[in-house]
């Protein structure tokens, strides 16, 4: 019997980002209601289109590689922001949303964020991804019988 392990792994992987997407859409609604001149929806295109896909593929990769590498799912998930953040920054720079400077980055030519603030946010993202993958995606993998 074909159990479709990779399909179940993909669905377990996209669970969290799919739940977060409606929360991101509230920022668009708030911007439109309050008539804020910052086009937040330009920044949300990348997370809404690519992040769930990559989470699902990343979980499929973990399922495929775990018998060979024996890397925990939490550590495997914590590597994902190392790929996502540069991809997002590159896309934002190409779209003109993000400008990279000597002392920090500027979003929408309005908000300047120094590099000293980006580093702790990046480390926090690594921790959040580790915990989300270890406890939520790992739990879903066990429930679906693929872990």
Q: Can you put this structure into words, describing what you see?
A:
There is one protein chain. The chain has one domain (about 5-145). Helices cover about 75% and strands about 5% of the residues. The chain is built from 4 helices and 3 strands, in the order H-H-H-E-E-E-H. The chain has helices at about 5-35, 40-70, 75-95, 115-145, and strands at about 100, 105, 110-115. A 3-stranded antiparallel sheet has the order 1-2-3. Helix 1 (about 5-35) runs antiparallel to helix 2. The model has no long low-confidence stretch (mean pLDDT about 85).
Q: What keyword list fits this structure?
A:
single chain, 147 residues, mainly alpha, 3-stranded antiparallel sheet, 4 helices, 3 strands
Number of strands: 3
Total number of domains = 1
- Shape descriptor: globular
Low-confidence stretches: none
Nearest-angstrom radius of gyration?
Answer: 17 Å
Binned, the helix content reads over 70%
Mean pLDDT: 87
The strands making up the biggest β-sheet line up spatially as 1-2-3
Order of helices and strands: HHHEEEH
Report the end-to-end length measured between terminal Cα atoms: 18 Å
State which percent range the strand residues make up.
Answer: 5-15%
Characterize the biggest β-sheet.
3 strands, antiparallel
Query: With helices defined by DSSP (H or I, 4 residues minimum), what is the helix count?
Result: 4
């Amino acid at each position: 019997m074909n159990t479709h392990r990779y399909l179940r792994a993909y669905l377990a992987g996209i669970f969290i980002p799919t739940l977060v997407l409606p929360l991101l859409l509230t920022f668009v609604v708030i911007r439109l209601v309050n008539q804020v001149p910052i086009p937040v929806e330009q920044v949300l295109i990348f997370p809404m289109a690519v992040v769930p896909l990559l989470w699902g593929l990343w979980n499929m990769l973990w399922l495929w590689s775990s018998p060979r590498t024996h890397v925990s799912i939490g550590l495997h998930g914590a590597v994902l922001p190392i790929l996502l953040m540069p991809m997002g920054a590159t896309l934002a720079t190409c779209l003109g949303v993000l400008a990279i400077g000597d002392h920090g980055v500027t979003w929408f030519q309005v908000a300047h964020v120094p590099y000293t603030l980006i580093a702790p946010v990046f480390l926090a993202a690594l921790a959040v991804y580790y915990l989300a993958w270890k406890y939520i995606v790992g739990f879903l993998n066990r429930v679906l019988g693929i872990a």
